[in-house]
Write the structure tokens for this entry.
Amino acid sequence: MTIANYAFYYSFSGNANKSLLLFIHGFMGNYHEFDEAIKLLEKDFYCLTIDLPGHGNTKVLGADNCYSMTQTAQALINFLDNLQITKCFLVGYSMGGRLGLYLTLNFPHRFSKVVLESASPGLPTVAEQQDRAKRDGQIAKTLERCIEQSDFIAFLSNWYSQPIFGNIKNHPRFQNLIEIRLQNNPTELAKSLRFMGTGCQPSLWEKLKYNINPLLLLAGEYDKKFFDINEKMANICQFCDLRVISNAGHNIHFENTKAFVENISNFFNESELDGGIKFI
């Protein structure tokens, strides 16, 4: 679907008579990101997946600022409008979770309930943003130097050695994850990182205090960094629950798909949040 400065690639699956669930993948993902989870959800939900700018088969037809969070968010709202989707559930992972939070805080009437997996509201101070943007710029340069596939594979191996990912490299399906990541263009990923990295996005901490939509925060037990961030989010955010998922690091839906699906299914089917922080 071509909308203004974007040619979006997307896919529907599941039961068209059920509630619509929009999935937003993380950095280096694509519309296949949630395939395993969707297999368990498609009887009870109508699932919509999309490639974000800089990822998969979606093309950016405009200037580089079209990769930014504000521009991407508005483009997604226009995308939903074109599909005549006025309201839906939303699940966002990592970068997709940051984008999902921006969407629900700025377009609250469009999303009934929102799940944020290993996400954050960005960085609260200008100094932190500038420092992070500088580091993301260095990572983007490394991606731009990935000329051969072997270069990209080496980058991915190093990326998944970060502490937030816990034991993901020992997962039996880790090679499948790498194959999905290799479907991306490193140069396009670099643009996404430069314009929608954590250091570039607007801080959402203050706005989070005024959230009006039910939010479910998911953090992996091995991902201390994002547990700490999500604990702070849960303490300041109205209508917000935090679930800490066992046997998972940053990428919960991949490492513990069953628990991920159970938690989001229960959340979307509950009439009210039961509150608090729970370890599952």
